[in-house]
Design a protein that fits this description.
Chain lengths: 179, 191
């Protein structure tokens, strides 16, 4: 075989090869036990607090102006802004609660539950459905992060997922008692 | 700007946003980065590990976990994919160094031992008319250099820096790798 032929053959090899299984759950589980560096925390803290303060101040100022009957931009609805802000805060809190619950789920290793009949497959199927919805919803939220409708949907979904995780925890406990 | 360039630029901007968010601890953003780069990193690890699927998967996971831990060190001087790729190479090489040390403790190093550092695979499994299999069957160092130089596009000085070998050794290993592959592809029964 000539050098050039070998080079052509090597060049034709694919640069991407899909793994046979999804490696993300394993990675995600390991991220849970990892504390990120202080650098990241400092980076977050320094701008978030002033930004939140500015948003609240803006909302309150807008509210005062409207209360006094002064002319403001018609598109600007301060009371709505405050509500939206509060709502987005709720979504963020639920998100944190869900992430914490999910971290606890991973050590349970629900895939190893010794359930009888079709239960494990049904559970896995339900969870996959929820994950599929999550993927679509998060993709939409990346485009429209402040969209109230999408955030409401995320809130609903997270509630369902939390419920699911809690049920799994109960199942795991009963399974442990049985064995 | 062509539509292709625009697409590329938008893709890059999106990725930068994911990196920023992941740096702030957003795992969903990090998952997006994983989904974008997983196949490429897996291809690299799979080849570097000589086609050992389980080991390659471990390496991919380790690379992404390490990337998450070190994300605050990524300054954006290069593309995220380039940085991640380099990190994955280091993960595989450092894992190999650990294995080499363990093996050295157990027995003296020899060429046959070098061929089996990544596990108890059949050392002659690569002797088939298949390029991937032939690459998988190469000795460790020759395979690393061939994968990094010919497939991943690193230069000899970069490979030397990453692997700790001299530039001349890197060139020699590449020559050796190509020669072995040619022999294997010419005659599958070659041992």
């Amino acid at each position: 075989m000539k050098e050039s032929e070998l080079q052509n053959a090597i060049d034709s090899l694919p640069s991407n090869i899909k793994p046979q299984r999804d490696l993300w759950p394993g990675i995600n589980a390991r991220l849970g036990s990892v504390e990120k560096g202080d650098h990241a925390h400092h980076k977050t803290v320094w701008w978030r607090t002033p930004a939140m303060a500015a948003a609240v101040l803006l909302a309150l100022t807008g509210g005062i102006f409207i209360g006094r009957g002064l002319d403001t931009s018609p598109a600007f609805e301060p009371s709505q802004t405050v509500l939206e802000y509060a709502f987005l805060g709720t979504v963020a809190a639920t998100e944190r609660e869900y992430q914490a619950a999910f971290r606890e789920l991973v050590p349970l290793d629900y895939s190893g539950l010794q359930l009888e009949g079709a239960e494990p497959d049904a559970l896995r199927g339900s969870w996959e459905d929820l994950l599929q919805t999550e993927t679509s919803l998060l993709a939409a939220l990346r485009e429209y992060p402040s969209n109230i409708y999408l955030n409401e949907k995320l809130l609903d979904l997270r509630s369902q997922q939390l419920q699911f995780v809690k049920q799994l925890a109960l199942l795991e406990q009963s399974n442990w008692r049985r064995t | 700007m062509t539509s292709w360039q625009q697409d590329k630029s938008e893709l890059s901007a999106t990725e930068n946003r994911w990196v920023d968010r992941a740096r702030d601890g957003d795992r969903l953003a990090f998952e997006q980065l994983y989904r974008s780069h997983c196949d490429r990193i897996h291809a690299l690890c799979w080849r570097m590990c000589g086609g050992d699927r389980a080991l390659a998967e471990d390496m991919v996971q380790e690379a992404f976990v390490r990337a998450w831990n070190k994300l605050h060190l990524f300054r954006g001087d290069s593309k995220f994919g380039t940085w991640l790729h380099r990190l994955a190479v280091n993960v595989v090489l450092s894992d190999r160094r650990i294995r080499v040390k363990r093996l050295q403790r157990e027995q003296e190093m020899g060429d046959d031992v070098e061929r089996t550092l990544m596990g108890d695979r059949d050392v002659y499994a690569g002797l088939r008319k298949d390029l991937e299999a032939a690459i998988a069957g190469l000795p460790e160092r020759a395979r690393s250099v061939l994968v990094l130089y010919d497939i991943e596009g690193y230069q000899h000085n970069e490979i030397a820096e990453m692997t700790g070998m001299a530039v001349g050794s890197s060139k020699a290993q590449l020559h050796r790798a190509r020669k072995l592959i040619r022999e294997v592809l010419k005659d599958p029964e070659t041992k």
